[in-house]
Amino acid sequence: MIELQTAKQLGAQTMTEPTKEELLARIAELEKKAAGPKRSGALEFRVGEKGGVSVYGLGRFPVTLYYEQWDRLLKVADDLRAFLEENKSRLKLKNVE
Question: Least crowded by CB within 10 Å, which of 7, 42, 54, 83?
Fold first, then answer.
């Protein structure tokens, strides 16, 4: 027959309930962590695992291109700027800087 042993017989420590103060402190810690870093509006650049360069801060998701793609885009930056101005009336504009 199998005999069941209690926690005391096994020498295990029993868990104590956290105090109200400990729970409130833990909640505050989790809320702070969930809030994450505040968005400053500044652009941030990162190199990803696959070697692409990502730009964070333009929108909800980063824009990621490889070196050659960024280089090609930057070479036509003046053309892109002119195209945007020419088509400004057809573009959806937001109050974003």
Answer: 42
Do residues 53 and 70 lie in contact, with contact meaning Cβ atoms separated by under 8 Å?
A: yes
Q: What is the rounded distance in angstroms from the CA atom of residue 22 to the CA atom of residue 18?
A: 6
Domain count within the chain: 1
How confident is the model over 4-54, as pLDDT tens digits?
666 566 565 667 898 999 999 999 998 888 876 666 789 999 999 999 999
Domain membership of residue 58 as a residue range: 44-89
Cut 0.70: pTM above it: no
- Look at residue 52 and tell me if it is in a domain: yes
Nearest Cα to Cα of residue 37 among 23, 52, 57, 55: 57
